[in-house]
# Entry
Amino acid sequence: MKYTSHLKQLSVDMFRSSFDDLDKNNRWVKLGDSPPWTELENIYNSRLDNKVKGAGNKPARMIIGACLIKHKFCLSDEETISMIQENPYMQYLCGLSEFTDKPLSDPSLFTTIRKRITIEEINQFTTELLNKELAAKEARKAEDQNQRDDNEEPPVANTEDNGAEFTDSHGRTHKGVLKLDATCADAEVRYPVDADIIHDGCKIADRYIKKICKVLHIKKLRSCYGDARSFYLELVKRKKKGYKLIRSTISAMLSYLKKDLRKLAELFFEYKGCKEILQPHEQRILRATFDMYSQQLEMFEEKKHQCKDRIVSIFQPHVRPIVRGKSKSPTEFGAKIGAAIYEGYTFIDHHSWDAYNESTDLSLQIQLFKERFGYLPATILADKIYMSKANRKILKEYEIKTYCKPLGRPPKEPRSPEYLEKMAKAVGERNEAECSFGTGKRIYRAYNIRAKLPETAECWTGMCYFVKNVMKFLRELCLVLFGFLLNLWTDAIAKYRVHCFASMAIY
# Structure
């Protein structure tokens, strides 16, 4: 007997519902209800003008929610809009009042956002999250204290805690442990080889010559890209590339690139205003191509591989090589960031495309910590590169504790076991900075910054670590709520046991 189903084909209309039917325990619903959206809205709107004519600005919850989804799943701008369009829980996170099939916005909105939001504003977002978490913990402690029995002795303060609150000789309050470290946020560029960079310049020059001639309706000028590419392919197809072959190839490609750049310059001189045919980003790439040619010619003639402000990619001319000295990747290409970790939250205090000594950030990071929280850190944990003579003097002036190897000759008497134990504990706690960097790079892809402009790349890097902070904020609130419910359950059991024993005593 043939089986026939009694169920009819489902229709799309059966799935349409309001946000009232959403599961309250869903992660996106919890994330939408947890952050202090009012404070974040005020920070986001502080530099915006909503009085001008036009469509108006998007709400901060919609913008921040879309960025959370994008960096949580490491999506492109187009894929992020599509995923939000298909998921009602994500639409709730973005602050929509009801489910809609229309796209949230155009994908180009993300580029505008990255140009608008700065690292300082992202740090303010993180500060608001941390303040709310600390307030929840303080309320939790106060409630636990109120529930204690009057006969119970108060808990003894842990004097060994590095972050214990104290007041120094100048009346300044110190509290918490601040961890400092630096890392590199790699940009999405291929490894810079001289022949590859020159080949990119030849290709760009050929493309722009054709575009200008087509728009001006003039006879197409013959470029030298075909000849340059022949030399380039002959080089890259060789398994063993000798020194003479590399030199001869680069010499030929530089000569062809020079001819094409000269043709572009003649077009700009003969046809006034034809430079405006190129888009702003194309003009930026062309300027980088001219600078790249000058650098490559200088290095070729002087037989060297280094120069000042060397361009490693004409598409991202702001990217610089950062020598880190690591075994896996001695040189990284991207931005060097100086980060401060407090209570597990990461703050990007310094973002630079040029290599610098991170020890110079110590004074700045102390001041930023004071501005954010209103007090100084009790202890600072950092690598030995931060413990220079000048920084030790600064820490002494601020009366901030640290655990580091003293300068000068080793002491005649060995250190006490208690001091050595504190040193070992400090080293272990300092590793939290490396864990924070690893989480931001592996999970939220802070090692592959795909934004092309320096300001957008800076916002991209900050958003990667902000999403990490938001996820930690959600976990901590869940733990606080779980602890509260656990205490209520424990108290209920204790009262029930007391009631049972009292009943047994009566009988």
